[in-house]
Amino acid sequence: MSNTYERAPLTLDQQVALTTAATRLATDFEGTFGTETIERFLHTSYDQFAGRAVVANFLPLLAERFARQRLTALAKVEGLSQDGRPTVLFLCVHNAGRSQMALGFFQHHAGNAAIAWSGGSEPGERVNAVAVAAMAERGIDISGEYPKPWTDEIVRAADVVVTMGCGDACPVFPGKRYEDWTLEDPAGQGLDAVRPIRDEIERRVHALLDQLGVTAQPA
């Protein structure tokens, strides 16, 4: 693998893991993006997480997942891939509570009929444990998610951008559909306080699915 984009120090294990990740991405995006683009997105994705308190062994996996999302978005933006499914981006400050619950509900109710992503203006270190618990009560597991930033290609690929408390930090692209959901921040709150926030998010997700013409999947 080229070292052109390696800015964060890598252990031997991480180098091997990134090489393996690049091979998987190259296979998945064969005919869409070349090796240079894939390596650039993989390594810049790695750098997004390397400076934050994330278990080092998980960094290559996080980088691969985020690079895959970014490459999928870029393919849509550049007209290289279009399956007709609506794409929604949920944004909040830390991408640890509200946007993660919205993502969980949207993916649960939309199934494969639509695509959803999430991001934060100041991504936290981990998803809010109380939000995870609140969603688990509804049978939805968001414990495997992780706070991440947004990038230009991800915002540009979204058909709808839903903002939740990120204010002026939220990205604005002319002509794109935006919705601002005013919701209390679950950070630092107990489960009893987070449940009403969770339920309001689900109500709004259902309304958004109706607007997009996506039939909610059976519970």
TrEMBL record:
User: Where is each Phosphotyrosine protein phosphatase I domain found?
Assistant: 86-211
Query: Tell me, which GO biological process terms does this entry list?
Result: response to arsenic-containing substance
InterPro entries named in the record: Phosphatase-like_N, Ptyr_pPase, Ptyr_pPase_sf
What keywords are annotated for this sequence in UniProt?
Answer: Arsenical resistance
Domain of life the protein comes from: Bacteria
Task: Write down a Pfam family by its short name.
Answer: LMWPc
Show the PANTHER family listed in the entry: ARSENATE REDUCTASE
**Listed name of the protein:** Phosphotyrosine protein phosphatase
Organism of origin: Jiangella anatolica
